[in-house]
Amino acid sequence: MDSQFDFPIVGIVCRIDTILNGGIDVKIEGKILRKVEDSDLENGIVYLPSIVEEIDDFAFAKTKVKRVEFPLHVRKVGANIFYKCKELIACSFKNDDCDLSKSTDLFNHCYNLKTVVLPRNLTMLPRGIFTCCDKLGKVIIPNGVSEIQEFAFCSNASLKTVSIPDHIECITYAMFYGCTNLNIIWQDRKSTRLNSSHPSISYAVF
């Protein structure tokens, strides 16, 4: 799947690829983006130098960013980087090997999030990655994912369809808690196992 958006990029945009002289005020330390200031997002576009390889925890938290495309040189993303970005609509990762292993609660409370293109080589969906994403309607989990951590899709009443690959090895506590309209497509139900401390699928997952 191409990581480019399939719709026009309009409104407030965050596209990270090259440096901008002036405009957006960002804090960079070494190769790490520490923080993007909310007050500067009104300028529309965020440009960062190619030296940036890592996005720190809470880097975009509570800002008005709407769409983000992370370029090839971003190799690692931290936790809660879009926490309460209530206007975020879409996000994609061009680097198929981008490390999301520490990206817990990545899109936590992104109420308007509709489209996410995850790294192709992702092997694990982090804890709470899509918690309270009210507009998220359909999720296709990358084929390489073998583990989905707890609360991954928690409290998404609008989520209607999740397609789970046949090689998923572990599903965990409250993964779909509060997803009242969900239809799960199990490609091979026998390949999944519950967290050993939660023997009931209805209790462990919902």
Provide the fold topology.
Elements: E1 13-15, E2 26-29, E3 32-36, E4 54-55, E5 67-70, E6 76-77, E7 90-93, E8 115-117, E9 124-125, E10 138-140, E11 147-148, E12 161-164, E13 170-171, E14 183-186, H1 201-205
Parallel strand pairs: 1-5, 3-4, 4-6, 5-7, 7-8, 9-11, 10-12, 11-13, 12-14
Antiparallel strand pairs: 2-3
Structure description:
This protein is globular. A hairpin with a 2-residue loop joins strand 2 (26-29) and strand 3 (32-36). The protein contains 1 helix and 14 strands; from the N terminus they run ββββββββββββββα. It has one helix at residues 201-205; strands spanning 13-15, 26-29, 32-36, 54-55, 67-70, 76-77, 90-93, 115-117, 124-125, 138-140, 147-148, 161-164, 170-171, 183-186. With 206 residues, it is mainly beta.
Distance between the termini: 30 Å
Overall body shape: globular
Strand-residue fraction?
15-25%
Q: What fraction, in percent, of the residue positions are helical?
A: under 10%
| Main sheet attributes: strand count, strand direction, barrel closure | 4 strands, parallel
Radius of gyration, Cα only, in angstroms?
17 Å
How many distinct helices?
1
